[in-house]
Specification:
This protein is mainly α. The chain has twelve helices and no strands.
Length: about 325
Amino acid sequence: GTWEAFRIALMLCAAFALAWQLPRAQVRGLQWVAVGVALGMSLLVAAQRLEPRPWPIFEYTGIFVNENHFAVFINLLLPVILALAARSRFRALQTGAASSPAGMIFFVAALMGWAVYLSHSRAGTAILMLIFSLHLLWIWVLRRRYPFTSVMPAVWFRTGAALIVMLAAVVVGFTFFREWKHLESFLGELQYRWGIIHDTWRIWRDQPVWGIGPGTYASVWPYYASPAYDGRIILHAHVEPVQFLAEWGWAGCLILFIAFLLVLVRRPGGSANNHAVPAWNELEKNAFRLGILAIMLHGLIDFPLRIPLLALISAAWLALAFRPSTHQSS
């Protein structure tokens, strides 16, 4: 209930503060940890979907209970892992190294996408393809800004990127068609979710200023539920902004707004001594911002921030995405 919500909020503040102070060398280590964790989870999920009998770990690991939660986890890590691959490639070209681990990292990213597709997460597949397409677009911008960072002809890169984006659109379309073969099923899902949002909105209108209290949504919901939801247990609104407004009210929104303004206030000081090309702000920082975009998109159709692990990663990513560029790299 409420105390659990406050404990999680305290954990989020701690994760944010810790990530804010991490030097870039440790952030790079964190990226490598993300590669290993994402690889292991992707292989496990793929095995669960391909094996005739689900593995026992499915019963004990909460992250695998819902395919959308797994997709959120992957979409949080994907842009950060892709940035690590791009940095490895750019560094090899800059130093004249004969090889780099970029190919291996890209292979892990491909396994991550395959696992999300096998999990049958419609939203997860769509957001993953969007994040990957935005990453390709940004790499194209960096190539134009720093032509010496790539040996591939520009026309090949544009053609390959266009083919990948078109393939991504086909995969997303097939994923949605696989789950919703008829228009009626899609409209039914839409109506079901819209009804939850409508009833949650009624909850907020009764307590617009202070809300009903953090973590109390599941307890209050039955008193506002429409007849269509009789006998159903609804724990979350499946739309993070609406549920946050119902639980915290305008007061919580004001606190969140002030906190975000404080994050955007940059501390004075010069930039760190960093000779990497592209710079940290141009590659890694944008990757963490893509991760924040992914969690925001998932939050419009699900409740990822109610999962402690996903919320902690999001808080850390937020700090790394908006902290000032004064930390030394190595």
